[in-house]
């Protein structure tokens, strides 16, 4: 009897899925540029392939994001604090050029800084990126001009990351390249890409997911290790991958990925860890000791109740909630009627981390955008979530304007709390849509086209070896989740650890 993991309606691999043919919102929005994709467009594409179009759109949106920062670039970064908030164009980049010693030629992690933070509080690969940008920054002119140049150099380098991100998402699902437009046109990407250096880790993570979709676990692991050397969150992807490889019995691929990730992370971190241990551990100490900060649910609770939540308590609460979230993911992974797609669980675990973290900086939305585009490629749901994030983006800057202007302009506390709630609800809404797709795979927009798991690599179309609940006991007259000879039931004398690879 065939496995339910196998596609019941094999895809015609000569046909690319066109969103304007499947998505009402995409079809309606396409009227602005000439209407849905038709036979004339199909017959005369020229050199504008979907991936090239998406890359150009991503670069165009990124450029618009740079223009949005123009008031700050011209004067607001350098003439007081309130104006950069009222214009919603704040960026860490020019401020840290001076504040973290790059303007003075200090070597990150090795040279001690003046002030409360003794060393650079960023992971090693991000610190290297910042240092390379400092090397490329012209040395002439006054400090204001140097800060402007430093932001421009970083913006140029980060633009490359934005293009890589869009291309990787477009190529991950072979027959759904146009889903990359969700990333290319995401307003949150344009607004937040040059606030900080997060898009470096996001691009590396997207490249890692692309490699996994091509059944290259070693390349996936190396890229994921590099991404983790730039930001902590990418390592979370190994958790859902463990669950899915466990269900499918793909231990060799998973082990290769883990070894690649550990090796790449050590290659980047080990020299600094050995030569400048105090500077190297600053990122981890800063993350542990950081107070409850903007955008987090803990700040909302603290403000509403008047109870000061210490970093230790926030760390404990976040750890417990993440443990509960991982337990929920494990339940989904083993009991879903079909094995969840890799990017679905990846999105959920990163979303859980974002929702429970001590801080939600505006640029953290970048972590979720590519995973959301791959996990739930529907314009309506994506735009609902993006609208909530844009409201939060404006809200946090207006709240900072309120607090730094002596309560004279900006958004008061109640308004900012509403923006936090909207951000939380928008993310939870998208999570709910992804969970619904997992529990009812016939509603999954990717699987409606006959695919199993285009981002799954070795998991795509693989049969299950460990299942539980509904997956172990499919409904009568329905195809089972696994073949009879390979099913392993929890709570029986069968040994799940002996499942074949």
From TrEMBL:
Topology of this chain in the membrane: Multi-pass membrane protein
Family: Belongs to the glycosyltransferase 87 family.
Keywords for this protein: Cell membrane, Membrane, Transferase, Transmembrane, Transmembrane helix
Pfam families found in the cross-reference section: GT87 (PF09594)
Subcellular location: Cell membrane
Protein name: Membrane protein
UniProt region (Disordered), positions on chain: 1-20, 471-501
One cellular component term from this protein's GO annotations in UniProt: plasma membrane
Compositionally biased spans, kind Low complexity: 471-482
Biased segments, Polar residues type: 1-18
Example of a GO MF term: hexosyltransferase activity
Sequence intervals crossing the membrane: 119-137, 149-170, 182-212, 218-246, 253-276, 316-335, 342-362, 382-403, 415-435
InterPro entries: GT87 (IPR018584), UCP010361 (IPR016570)
């Amino acid at each position: 009897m065939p496995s339910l993991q196998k596609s019941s309606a094999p895809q015609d691999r000569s046909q690319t899925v066109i969103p304007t043919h499947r998505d009402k919102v995409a079809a309606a929005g396409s009227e602005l540029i000439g209407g849905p994709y038709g036979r004339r467009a199909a017959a005369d594409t020229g050199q504008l392939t979907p991936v090239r179009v998406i890359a150009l759109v991503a670069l165009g949106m990124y450029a618009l994001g740079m223009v949005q920062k123009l008031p700050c670039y011209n004067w607001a970064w350098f003439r007081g604090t309130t104006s950069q908030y009222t214009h919603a164009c704040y960026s860490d980049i020019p401020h840290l050029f001076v504040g973290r010693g790059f303007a003075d030629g200090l070597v990150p992690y090795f040279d001690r800084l003046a002030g409360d933070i003794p060393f650079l509080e960023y992971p090693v690969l991000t610190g290297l990126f910042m240092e390379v940008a400092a090397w490329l920054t012209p040395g002439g002119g006054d400090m204001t001009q140097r800060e402007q140049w430093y932001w421009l150099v970083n913006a140029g380098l980060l633009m490359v990351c934005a293009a890589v991100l869009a291309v990787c998402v477009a190529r991950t699902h072979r027959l759904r390249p146009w889903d990359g437009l969700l990333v290319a046109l995401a307003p949150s990407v344009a607004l937040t890409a040059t606030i900080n250096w997060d898009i470096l880790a996001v691009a590396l993570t997207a490249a890692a997911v692309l490699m996994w979709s091509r059944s290259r676990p070693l390349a996936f692991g190396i890229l994921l290790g590099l991404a983790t050397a730039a930001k902590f969150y990418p390592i979370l992807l190994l958790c859902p991958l463990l669950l899915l490889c466990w269900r499918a019995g793909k231990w060799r691929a998973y082990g290769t990925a883990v070894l690649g990730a550990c090796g790449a992370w050590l290659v980047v971190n080990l020299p600094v860890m050995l030569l400048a241990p105090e500077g190297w551990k600053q990122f981890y100490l800063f993350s542990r000791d950081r107070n409850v900060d903007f955008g987090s649910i803990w700040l909302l609770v603290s403000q509403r109740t008047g109870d000061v939540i210490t970093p230790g308590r926030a760390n404990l609460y976040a750890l417990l909630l993440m443990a509960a979230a991982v337990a929920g993911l494990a339940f989904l992974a083993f009991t879903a009627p079909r094995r969840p797609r890799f990017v679905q669980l990846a999105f959920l675990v990163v979303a859980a981390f974002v929702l429970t973290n001590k801080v939600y900086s505006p640029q953290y939305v970048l972590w979720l955008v590519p995973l959301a585009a791959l996990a739930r490629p529907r314009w309506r749901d994506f735009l609902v979530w993006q609208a909530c994030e844009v409201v939060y983006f404006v809200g946090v800057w207006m709240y900072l304007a309120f607090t730094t202007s002596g309560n004279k302009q900006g958004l008061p506390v109640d308004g900012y709390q509403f923006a936090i709630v909207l951000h939380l609800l928008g993310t939870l809404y998208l999570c709910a849509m992804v969970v619904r797709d997992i529990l009812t795979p016939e509603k999954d927009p990717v699987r409606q086209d006959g695919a199993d798991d285009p981002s799954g690599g070795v998991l795509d179309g693989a049969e299950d070896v460990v299942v539980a609940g509904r997956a172990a006991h499919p409904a009568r007259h329905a195809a089972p989740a696994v073949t009879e000879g390979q099913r392993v039931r929890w709570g029986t004398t069968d040994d799940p650890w002996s499942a074949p690879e």
